[in-house]
Design a protein that fits this description.
Elements lengths: L1 H36 L4 H4 L1 H21 L4 H18 L6 H30 L4 H27 L5 H19 L7 H5 L10 H31 L5 H37 L1 H29 L3 H15 L2 H12 L4 H29 L4 H22 L16
Helix pairs in contact: 1-5, 1-6, 1-7, 1-9, 3-5, 3-14, 4-5, 4-7, 5-14, 6-10, 6-13, 9-10, 9-13, 9-14, 9-15, 10-11, 10-12, 11-12, 11-13, 11-15, 14-15
Length: 412
């Protein structure tokens, strides 16, 4: 019964992240539609990325301590309720200011939900959370894959993008009912009070992982959010085709996370035999990160250098596939070095929220000042910042920076 409950909870958290992916990936393709409804320039409407991310940061900060004090499923249920309500209200916002307020609320609910899913999953699986964390974020990718297809179909059927928002809101409400029917995990903070070795707060690790997540989420949200506008304005693609390009990016993103699960299981088995459980798990996580970051660097270079329609499809797919495993692997690495609490996870996701707030906004400004063609140089700069922060993290962990490009996948 205990194992069955553990995996039922895992499934519920995965579906919650699927709903989060639906919300995130629907925003970019509908941004021109929202800008038109509120009589705003598309470039100026990029501030909505920042507003939504401010809400995400606020929601993450406020709820991190709540997960350490009250049953987690209650908090996640409230977050899903808030997310469903705000998404249902998005199409009704008549002005940019009101739309910004609604999106701030949706961001706050998303932050609370993200903290809960990542924290509670780590609590029930512990140091072996790696494959489960990748599965959790795989479902985020599935939601992000489905969302642009839903938007494309509303464009094709001339229903209006409001139907996409209403459908996603109804889905969030269904996930809420499923989650609140399950008992919450025992609070980890309460468990630690009866032990002699509480969780270890390593501030250098917290800062460096948060910085990596900041740069990573900026890359993910920046590319996924602006590729539609780039394709329609710079390449003059029709809206439906540009929406499918967005879906290709998120589809490859999803496949990258899916592929990382058996790859991580294989590497874990091999490394555990050579190094033991804990050391083998840490090596596996670093190997996955090195491969993902190397592939992301090459993909952004391809997009920047070869200016062709075919390369836009190929580069978008390659970038999505390689960056997919980065977020959950970084969280899993932190769980290996520290036993995560809700407060710790909230700090990581605050860093992620700042990334979603800052980088897409800067990309939007670059596109507004220099034209839509500025998107790809801005994305390449973002990718370079991610690699630099990772090198700082590996140096602090005692790993030589040249590991990033080592072909054999083993630590020095």
């Amino acid at each position: 019964m205990g194992e069955a409950l553990k995996y039922t909870r895992t499934a519920a958290y995965c579906l919650s992240l699927l709903g989060l992916g639906l919300m995130d990936a629907s925003f970019g393709p509908t941004l021109p539609w929202l800008a038109q409804r509120t009589s705003t320039e598309v470039g100026a409407a990029g501030v909505l990325f920042t507003v939504r991310s401010c809400g995400y940061v606020a929601g993450s900060l406020v709820t991190g301590r709540l997960y350490d004090r009250i049953p987690g499923h209650r908090v996640m249920g409230m977050a899903l309720c808030g997310l469903a309500t705000s998404l249902a209200l998005v199409p009704s916002a008549p002005t940019l200011l009101i739309l910004a307020a609604v999106l701030f609320a949706s961001g706050a609910a998303a932050g609370a939900l993200d903290v809960g899913a990542n924290t509670l999953l780590a609590w029930i699986h512990g140091e072996r959370v790696g494959p489960f964390m990748n599965a959790l974020h795989l479902f985020f990718g599935i939601g992000a894959l489905i969302a642009p297809v839903i938007v494309a179909q509303t464009f094709k059927l001339q229903l209006g993008a409001e139907w996409a928002y209403w459908a996603i809101a109804a889905t969030e409400a269904g996930f809420m009912l499923m989650l609140i029917a399950l008992p919450s995990p025992v609070l980890r903070v309460r468990q630690q009070k009866s032990k002699t070795s509480p969780s270890h707060w390593s501030w250098p690790l917290i800062v460096l992982v948060s910085a990596c997540l900041m740069a990573y989420v900026g890359l993910e949200v920046g590319f996924g959010g602006w590729i539609f506008t780039y394709a329609t304005q710079k390449r003059s693609w029709p809206s439906e085709l540009a929406a499918y390009l967005t879906a290709v990016f998120w589809g490859a993103f999803t496949l990258g996370r899916l592929a990382s699960i058996p790859a991580m299981a294989y590497l874990s088995k091999r490394n555990d035999q050579r190094l033991g459980s804990s050391a083998g798990a840490r090596r596996t996580l670093r190997q996955v990160l090195r491969t993902a970051l190397t592939g992301a660097t090459v993909s952004t270079a391809m997009l920047l250098i070869w200016n062709s329609e075919a390369m836009l499809w190929i580069g978008s797919a390659a970038l999505g596939a390689f960056i997919g495993p980065i977020f959950p692997t970084l969280i899993s690495l932190a769980e290996q070095r520290m036993k995560l609490s809700g407060s710790m996870t909230s700090l990581f996701l605050v860093g992620a929220g700042f990334g979603a707030m800052l980088f897409p906004w800067l990309i939007g400004l670059a596109m507004r000042w220099f034209g839509p063609g500025a998107m790809l140089p801005a994305i390449s700069t973002n990718a370079a910042i991610l690699v630099i922060t990772y090198l700082a993290l590996t140096r602090w962990l005692g790993q030589p920076p040249q590991e990033l490009i080592r072909p054999d996948g083993y630590d020095a």
